[in-house]
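Many introductory courses stop at the sequence. We go one step further.
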Amino acid sequence: MPVKIKIAEPDGTYFITFTCFQWLPLIGKTNSYDAVYKWFDYLKGKGHHIVGFVIMPNHIHALISFRDMQKSINTIVGNGKRFMAYAIIERLKLQGETKLLNILNQSVSITERLRNKKHELWERSFDWKQCISRKFMEQKLNYMHQNPCVEKWNLAHKPEDYIHSSAKYYIEGIHAFYPITNYLELDDIDFGSDIF
């Protein structure tokens, strides 16, 4: 009988976005930014690079440069979401957020319940796009760095003022809170003839 093998995506830098269930501000409510940084640390320990990020109260944007891919991006991000979910759920329990925990519990599908899932903390799907040009990568960096400044959020007046972001590093050359790798240092990324 043939064995089905999932082939991992090619090495490269990917723009990844995932969101809390129903856009609830679960990261902010539980101050779980550190859980995201621990996931970043785990990825770095596997040889990957965090190139840019912004952690919002209810979603995460990240530019991650994957190396020696042994697993698919779906698996890597899925494992990360699971890891962060445990931390957030524990904090909701400590905060006595019974009503919110019940909502997250009742939102688990029957199929997922059979797999012993107890809470629906993230939207099931997430977006990822490979950065195949410097222009595209810079566009994504600018987009995510501006996120905290938009009227809907108003978390900072300037991108570099928001600490849960790589903006300060790219604008002022100073790591605000979490050290990243500048995409220009990744000399093994081939942007072809793209000079922008």
